[in-house]
Amino acid sequence: MDIYEAIKKRHSVRSYLNKPIPADIISELESEISLCNDEGGLHIQLVTDEPEAFSGFMAHYGKFSGVKNYIALIGEKSSELDVKLGYYGERLAIKAQQLGLNTCWVAMSFSKRKSKCITESGEKLICVLSLGYGETQGTAHKSKPIEQLCNVKGDMPDWFRKGMECAALAPTAMNQQKFLFTLNGDRVSVKPTGGFYSKVDLGIVMYHFEIGSGKKLMKQP
Ligand SMILES: Cc1cc2nc3c(=O)[nH]c(=O)nc-3n(C[C@H](O)[C@H](O)[C@H](O)COP(=O)(O)O)c2cc1C
């Protein structure tokens, strides 16, 4: 599945089949996680065959079932951590989709205490991505029209529109889509417009915009 198809087909999936992830798929994911950790200076970890983090009230209340695998999004505390984990976490969600898996971003509906990942001193676990073979493929979220999500002086160039179309398909906390892209000349900027986890959302939409537009937004190391 190519990356654009993966972006279109990715929807949050909260119920998973009792089907293990094969070793070759795990190893592909592990390699992508290593690349993200190296590039972003992060400590993202894959946890497999571990039902505890999603066994309590929060997971049940959040309508999660059968979650036994997750990607823990962890990094050293800094003012940029949320954006970076949003960006690299979404890169991993799209990679998982390409590998035939389903995911859901989760900030609230799991137990941080019970999760089996290593958070070193000075680090923070921001969110996890549930991972596995979904009972369904999920459904497309309602989206604001792209004109409400960006500010463009003059005509909207094609590359920018494609970036915005991909950004509108991105997952955001409670589907709030509280972000605003601005095009000034050929300079793109984006900012959060408030809401919960809006810095994580910002990193996620930056990744989608880059794929659609072909323009880099994230600073490279
Ligand atoms: C940062 C973030 C945190 C989220 N936390 C939760 C959560 O705790 N529980 C949950 O059920 N969904 C959670 N979601 C999933 C969103 O509700 C979902 O992405 C949004 O409704 C859009 O739907 P889609 O992912 O199918 O496109 C979260 C999404 C993001 C981006």
What report would you give on this structure?
This protein is of the alpha+beta class. It has seven helices and seven strands; from the N terminus they run H-H-E-H-E-H-E-E-H-E-H-E-E-H. The chain has helices at 3-9, 23-40, 57-61, 81-98, 146-149, 158-168, 198-213; strands at residues 45-47, 69-76, 102-106, 123-132, 150-152, 179-184, 187-192. The strands form two sheets. The chain has a four-stranded antiparallel sheet. A three-stranded mixed sheet has the order 5-6-7. Strand 5, helix 6 and strand 6 form a beta-alpha-beta unit. The longest helix has 18 residues, at 23-40. Bound molecules: flavin mononucleotide. Residues 11-12, 14, 62, 104-109, 127, 138, 141, 171-175, 197, 200-201, 204 line the site of flavin mononucleotide.
Question: Major β-sheet, in short?
Answer: 4 strands, antiparallel
N-to-C span: 28 Å
What is the number of domains? 2
The CATH level-2 architecture of the largest domain is identified as: 3-Layer(aba) Sandwich
**CATH secondary-structure class of the largest domain:** Alpha Beta
Order of helices and strands: HHEHEHEEHEHEEH
How do the strands of the widest beta sheet line up side by side? 1-2-4-3
Question: What is the averaged pLDDT score?
Answer: 97
Per DSSP E runs of 2 or more residues, the count of β-strands stands at: 7
Fourth CATH level, the homologous superfamily of the largest domain:
NADH Oxidase
Provide the β-strand percentage band.
Answer: 15-25%
| Total DSSP helices | 7
Tell me, what's the shape?
A: globular
CATH topology of the largest domain: NADH Oxidase
Percent of residues in helices comes to: 25-40%
Radius of gyration equals 17 Å
Can you tell me the residue ranges where pLDDT is under 50 for at least 5 consecutive residues? none
Structural class of the helix and strand makeup? alpha+beta
Query: What ions, cofactors and ligands are bound?
Result: flavin mononucleotide
